[in-house]
Amino acid sequence: MGISKTEIFTDQQNEISVFAKVFGHPARVAILQHLFKIDTCVCGDLVNEIGLAQPTISQHLKELKHLGLIKGSIEGTRVCYCIDADNWTKMKHIMQEFLDQDVSAKADCC
Amino acid sequence: MGISKTEIFTDQQNEISVFAKVFGHPARVAILQHLFKIDTCVCGDLVNEIGLAQPTISQHLKELKHLGLIKGSIEGTRVCYCIDADNWTKMKHIMQEFLDQDVSAKADCC
DNA sequence: TTGTTTCATTGCAATATTACGATGAATTAA
DNA sequence: TTAATTCATCGTAATATTGCAATGAAACAA
Question: Where in the numbering of this chain does the HTH arsR-type domain appear (chains A, B) (predicted)?
């Protein structure tokens, strides 16, 4: 139905999928990589850096902010966005625990 | 337009987002965790393990298989699925490189 | 004040995803 | 052969996502 039945999954499974979903669009990956690369950033720079319209970038920034991965502060008419280091680290541990699952030799049965 | 403009992003950005997207649904996270937990698996077990209909599980398995993260072999009337260890490792390195980006102290400007 | 800049929000169209009933294909059992 | 089992595929409905033009809100400049 286009809606995920989140209630039948564990909190951990839902948390992993929520973080993964936000990385599931190349524009948001590009935004995060750009924020990592430079030290200070404003939304306008991102519109130039990435080839999407300003409302589209703003929408992607909103999603990243909603998950706590970035934070923004108003600087006059501009808005300064950057990575939220603490929340990024927390997310990283959750994702790495999922990615680091070991495959036993026996598992390779097919 | 509901379609990602993949052509304006780098191959690396697109690759990260494609892997992330497949983890962006709790059912697929649950399927992978189950395949890691037990050593051999058939689709029917997954339908019982996860509370979704058989065609839905089959559809999620198809997406995981398409990315090469799992592989399946026919065993009579059943199909045995398991993690593709090599491809999982490759994917893990790509995702970890993205997650492991360092945040400089200066970046925390907001 | 008026205009300018910058970013957020609204509204909408196009497309993608999720879920499942019905059905099909392949194998096994009787 | 016929029936049963198992999983894939088809078709479709409900919902979500993506993208942008138009517009709004807030701060600054003249």
Answer: 8-106
The whole-number pLDDT of residue B7 equals 83
Answer whether residue B17 is part of any domain: yes
Whether A1 is covered by a domain: the verdict is: no
What's the confidence (pLDDT) of residue B97?
96
For the CA of B106 and the C1' of C12, the distance in angstroms is: 41
Residue contacts between A and B (CB atoms, under 8 Å): 159
* Domain that includes residue A90, residue range: 17-96
What pLDDT digit, counting tens, does each position of A35-69 carry? Answer: 999 867 888 899 999 999 999 999 999 999 999 99
Dihedral of alpha carbons B13, B18, B24, B26, sign: negative
Nearest by CB to A17, from B26, B73, B108: name it.
B26
With beta carbons less than 8 A apart as the criterion, state whether A99 and A24 touch: no
Q: Does any CB of chain A come closer than 8 Å to the CB of residue B1?
A: no
Beta carbon of A62 within 7 Å of strand D? Answer: no
Of A60-69, A95-104, B8-17, B84-93, the one with minimum mean pLDDT is: A95-104
Residue with the two structure tokens 């045995």: B80
For residue A32, is it within any domain? yes
